[in-house]
Every structure is written in C-alpha cells, then in structure tokens.
Amino acid sequence: MSLKESKCEACTIDAPLVGDQEAIELLKELDNWKIEHHDDIKQLVKQFKFSNYEDSVKFCEKVAELAESEDHHPKIVLEYGLVEVFWWSHKIRGLHKNDFICAAKTDQI
Question: Are 91 and 14 spatial neighbours (Cβ–Cβ below 8 Å)?
Fold first, then answer.
C-alpha cells in the first residue's frame, strides 16, 4: 500500500523512530520533501509556493483538515505566497511512518 493510501496509527511514546535507511526509502515516495534537523529533531519539511496570500491560506486550511482527519498535526508557517510544512512526531521527538504518510497526503492537496 502506498503512503498516500495509508492511514496514520496512534503514536505512543515508545513507538520506533524511522531509521536512516527506511527514511531514504520512504522519501522516494514523496515529492521534494527534505529531512532537516530542528532543535536536534529530524523533521520532514517542504515549501509550497502560491501566487497570492489567499491561496496560501486556503492551502493551510486544507492541511489543517488533513491533520485533524489523521489526528497528526504539523507545524505550518504561512507567508505571502509561501507555506512551509513540517511533519514530525512530537511524542517520539523524531520521524515516524505517520509523518511520511501525512507528507504524501499533503502533496495531494
């Protein structure tokens, strides 16, 4: 099953982090997402560009709807014509498969 067809699972404090090799494989299913370190936590990050502020806001609203439906919530940075989305799993302070699932679904918006 592809990432975009998968559903997030509840992430517990003892859930395993995605390993480096698995992350490389999962990134192949995503479109231009990067893994970055912020506060010593690996996060999936992507910038989305828009022609105006209104479209940027609408995109943020759709990402918020996705987050609620998956019960997994990203950091969203909104600027004029640009939205930056950060997915990571807060409970385990790093990347879980849920983050890759949500990134794939974000690309479908």
Answer: no
The pLDDT value given to residue 24? 96
**Rounded Cα–Cα distance for residues 95 and 99 (Å):** 6
State residue 2 phi and psi, 5-degree precision.
Answer: -75, 165
Report strand pairing: 34-38 vs 75-79.
unpaired
Cα separation, 103 vs 1, whole angstroms: 15
d(CA 28, CA 59): 24
Identify residue 39 by its one-letter amino acid code. D
Q: What is the pLDDT of residues 79-104, one digit of tens each?
A: 999 999 999 999 999 999 999 999 99
User: Which tokens go with 55?
Assistant: 């479209």
Question: For residue range 18-43, what is the model confidence (pLDDT) as tens digits?
Answer: 999 999 999 999 999 999 999 999 99
Q: What is the CATH number of domain 39-109?
A: 3.30.1360.20
